[in-house]
Amino acid sequence: MTFERNILCIGAGYVGGPTMAMIAYRCPRYRVTVVDVNREKIDQWNSDDLPIYEPGLDEIVRAVRGKNLFFSTDIPKAIEENDIIFVSVNTPTKNYGVGAGMAADLQFWEKTAREILKYSKSPKIVIEKSTLPVKTALAMERILNSNHHGIAFDVLSNPEFLAEGTAVRDLTNPDRVLIGSEETERGLCARNILVEIYANWVPRERILTSNIWSSELSKLVSNAFLAQRISSINAISALCEKTDADITEVSRAVGTDSRIGPKFLNSSIGFGGSCFKKDILNLVYLCRHYGLTEVADYWEGVLKINDYQQDRFVLTMIDAMFNTLSGKKICVWGFAFKADTGDTRESPAIRITKRLVEENALVIVSDPKALKNARADLRGLEDRVSFVEDPMEAVKGCHALCVLTEWDLYRHQDFEAVYASMAKPSFLFDGRNILDHGKCFRIGFNVYPIGKPPMTHFQ
Ligand code: NAD
Ligand code: UGA
């Protein structure tokens, strides 16, 4: 069968895999290939055990894989055969040299640009799907157009806004798709081709177009605004704990103002995930680069509150448990950075668990999907940390239980039985405010939510 378009994505991660599966699923007339340098990952994409857990993704991949969706490690062949190339490689925070700890590390991205240049034999549209510092497209163009074979490359920016755990839903019904291009005849022509691809399932009015720099910057700013809301509500949760106000009531009262809106106002142990922190660091670095010190300081505050919130959680535990955690068994329910994913990148649970270990506690980590990653994150701490998937089994004999991820299954446990199996007095620290605190208190727990008065049986 001949396909109308041949589309390639370089990078088969949390973004590349699901986004390409969605294009293949929605556009049977296109042939979609996803390549990666990581053979093990590609083998998993070709198996029944996908490399990422994402609700609804298995079904979609199963429906199209081998028909118009293909996973491969043959990058040269794929570049040669496809004329629309998404680049979805990782862009982590740089951990060496100039900008270490702040700037985006563009080494994977630049390597990809050079590979595209090396193996291209015909014109290509190259689409930045990775999150990148503003003006990266310029560097991409300069590398690609340094060729001497007269091949034309057009670079577009098409940042991804999906969230993990809801990727399939977000891709099926996105709030918007953003496409940035140069505003030249060629740039607009390339942009229209990408608009047509998305228009197969996304209503036209939700496909936003802009200049390329606005598109690149909008992605960083979207993540910064989302993270800022979480830090704002978390900052207020600390004040609630001092004043007997209740953060859930405050966030409901604030969020019902239609100008503010109710989403992303759940107080927690702080945001995790591979992107919020790195993208804000990237934004702060850019602002400093342009001499915008006050702007940089403003956004850096969002990250400072996020660290503060995690440290505050541990300090509350120490304070509540008679100023020592030494030798105490603490059960952690949830290690993923949010529910419905096995991803633990920058999960607050990592920092919190390490702090508990520093206090000489014995930590039992439980999670329905993230234990493999948790084991890797906590390598070297095996003498102090153990891993038990069953939450009821994990909590047995523990002095304290902390909820660090808002998995639905934790809401539905038998808390009478949990209490009965724990050492006394039993402490419950709900880092996500998902449990019925009144009920747990009545059962006998000393309950410490976030941003609400604790409920204790001590005089
Ligand atoms: P990831 O680490 O899961 O996947 C990136 C993949 O790229 C890896 O499998 C890696 O092996 C591969 N890769 C690196 N260099 C390569 C090369 N030269 N050739 C081929 N493959 C190569 O990362 P991710 O979470 O999918 O994120 C990718 C980008 O998308 C990042 O810029 C991120 O900021 C952005 N983003 C991520 C999310 C998310 O939810 N994870 C959402 C929106 C945007
Ligand atoms: C986030 C954005 O929501 C996506 O739009 C974006 O594409 C993505 O980053 C990215 O660029 O990688 P993600 O990190 O997958 O998506 O998940 P979110 O739902 O945004 O949650 C991030 C963190 O904030 C989680 O740790 C979550 O538990 C926490 N959170 C979220 C809160 O603490 N409170 C809230 O009210 C909402």
- CATH homologous superfamily of the largest domain? NAD(P)-binding Rossmann-like Domain
What's the arrangement of strands in the largest beta sheet? Answer: 3-2-1-4-5-6
What is the CA-based Rg, rounded?
A: 24 Å
Total strands: 14
**Which small-molecule species are bound to the chains here?**
nicotinamide-adenine-dinucleotide, uridine-5'-diphosphate-glucuronic acid
Number of domains: 2
**Intertermini distance:** 77 Å
Strand content: 5-15%
**Class computed from helices, strands and strand pairing:** alpha/beta
Q: Give the overall shape.
A: elongated
* Alpha plus pi helix count: 18
Named at the architecture level, the CATH assignment of the largest domain is 3-Layer(aba) Sandwich
Helicity, as a percent range: 40-55%
CATH uppermost class of the largest domain: Alpha Beta
Spans where pLDDT lies below 50 across 5 or more residues? none
Question: What characterizes the major β-sheet?
Answer: 6 strands, parallel
**Average residue-wise pLDDT:** 96
Per the CATH scheme, the topology name of the largest domain is Rossmann fold
Structure description:
- The protein is built from 18 helices and 14 strands.
- Helix content is 43%, strand content 14%.
- The longest helix is centred in the middle third of the chain and has 32 residues, at 212-243.
- Strand 1, helix 1 (16-26) and strand 2 form a beta-alpha-beta unit.
- It has helices spanning 16-26, 39-45, 57-64, 75-81, 107-119, 136-144, 167-172, 185-198, 212-243, 247-255, 276-289, 293-320, 348-358, 371-377, 391-395, 408-411, 415-421, 437-443; strands spanning 5-10, 30-35, 69-72, 84-87, 124-128, 153-157, 177-181, 207-211, 329-333, 362-366, 385-387, 400-403, 427-430, 446-448.
- The mean pLDDT is 96.
- It folds into 2 domains: 5-202, 3-Layer(aba) Sandwich (Rossmann fold), CATH 3.40.50; 254-459, NAD(P)-binding Rossmann-like Domain (Rossmann fold, 3-Layer(aba) Sandwich).
- The protein starts with a strand and ends in an 11-residue tail after the last strand.
- By secondary structure, it is of the alpha/beta class.
- It has a 6-stranded parallel beta sheet with strand order 3-2-1-4-5-6, with helices on both faces. A 6-stranded parallel beta sheet has the order 11-10-9-12-13-14, with helices on both faces. Strands 7-8 form a two-stranded parallel sheet.
